[in-house]
Specification:
Globin-like, 400 residues, 18 helices, 5 strands, five-stranded mixed β-sheet, Alpha-Beta Plaits, alpha+beta, 3 domains, 64% helix
Length: 400
């Protein structure tokens, strides 16, 4: 396709604007992310922490790729972005069973990016003729870049779909999906295809990472080892995610100690379940844990459903949960020592002696801290024990 080059003056303006776009303000990136993660076709992407993170990386790849190309050759047609981030996003979409409709995020991003680019354009010149040409070239360039990228990614998704539909990974993912959806697949047939026994007790886990992809399978193996299960089930849900099932339950202390060796990998553990129904429910519990950690931007590396079930229910609306914590704890939030004392005291069923021992501190020291906390709390501790306990749990799991 022919591509008309702009005038030398406009090429220089594009180069200067691209240099600005190469280092966009954080609020611009946040606006781009919010827009591309909104809408019915992207709901499943937005609710999946791994897919959402992949889309954010793709947004940055697209933005920086277009800007870099216009610094090197301003006003020239920009090649499609087939870098690591957009290709990984395409693979993950297919492995989640999603289709090309999720790519309309590119179209939404196009509109936001063009609007933000226009802010730069109108800061570069006030000459009407230059603005007219610059705006025309910019609109054509961004539209062509997005069209070419979407077309290329669609081809890649077709290839990925063909690869995924042949091989053991595809069969496992398909079978697990049928079980999770409650489809009428028989237990013997499912066990044969998975190489995993569905009778007895199971614990499901979701293992994921934004960058340490090489460690995912190692952590999945640690789960099996901590549970003493020689025949676990690991499913490649995406490039950055593993779904894991083990018979029984992993030893919590052993697993936490081992997982700490891989700080970039995160683990969400479901509750223990029995037979095929338990296989299904444990996975959905692990999914609840994963989504809660993502929703609260929690720094915790590993979490179990039993630990966070209440917090997950309370933080469906993260903003309201945050207000509840601030209203309930008030000034105490600013003092980690008082937070620690309150959590230990309530966790010890309000037994100061036991709580002091757990904190390795003197009982009188703990009592002084509790008295100070009670003074700072909006309501005295003895009158608001349940609410304070719940607020402390939410505070524990959210980003600090």
């Amino acid at each position: 396709m022919s591509w008309e080059r702009p005038s030398r003056r406009v090429r220089e303006l594009i180069r200067r604007g691209a240099e600005i776009a190469l280092d966009p303000p954080e609020e611009w990136l946040a606006e781009l992310d919010e827009a591309t993660l909104s809408g019915a076709n992207r709901r499943q992407v937005a609710e999946d922490p791994v897919l959402a993170a992949a889309l954010r990386r793709t947004n940055r790849s697209n933005l920086l790729g277009w800007a870099s190309a216009n610094i090197r050759a301003p006003g020239e047609r920009v090649p499609a972005d087939l870098g690591e981030a957009p290709l990984a996003f395409a693979r993950d979409l297919i492995r989640r069973g999603l289709d090309e409709s999720a790519l309309d995020a590119y179209r939404t991003g196009q509109g936001v990016a063009l609007r933000l680019w226009m802010r730069i354009v109108f800061s570069l010149t006030s000459d009407p003729d230059e603005l007219r040409e610059l705006t025309d070239v910019s609109c054509r360039s961004i539209a062509a870049f997005v069209d070419d990228t979407v077309a290329a990614i669609s081809v890649q998704m077709t290839r990925e779909r063909l690869q995924l539909t042949s091989g053991t990974h595809a069969e496992r993912l398909e079978t697990v999906t049928l079980l999770l959806d409650g489809a009428p697949i028989t237990v013997p047939r499912a066990e044969q295809r998975l190489g995993y026994r569905l009778s007895g007790e199971h614990t499901a886990a979701i293992v994921w990472s934004d960058d340490a992809l090489g460690d995912l399978d190692r952590v999945a193996d640690l789960l099996a080892s901590a549970a003493g299960d020689a025949r676990p089930l690991t499913v490649l849900a995406s490039a950055a995610t593993r779904w894991v099932w083990v018979h029984g339950a992993p030893d919590d202390a052993v697993l936490r100690a081992e997982v700490e060796r891989f700080p970039a990998v995160r683990v969400a553990l479901g509750s223990r379940g029995t037979n095929a129904d338990g296989f299904r429910s444990s996975h959905f519990d692990a999914l609840t844990v994963q989504r809660m950690l993502a929703r609260l931007a929690s720094p915790q590396q590993l979490a179990t459903h039993s630990e966070v079930e209440l917090v997950a229910l309370l933080t469906t609306d993260a903003e309201r949960a945050d207000r509840f914590v601030r209203r309930t704890l008030g000034p105490v939030l600013a003092d980690p020592e008082l937070i620690e004392a309150l959590r230990a005291y309530i966790g010890a069923q309000c037994n100061a002696t036991v709580a002091a021992a757990r904190l390795y501190t003197h009982r009188n020291t703990l009592l002084r801290r509790l008295a100070r906390a009670s003074q700072l709390l909006p309501r005295p501790l003895e009158h608001d024990l349940v609410h304070v306990g719940v607020a402390l749990e939410v505070h524990r799991w959210r980003a600090q």
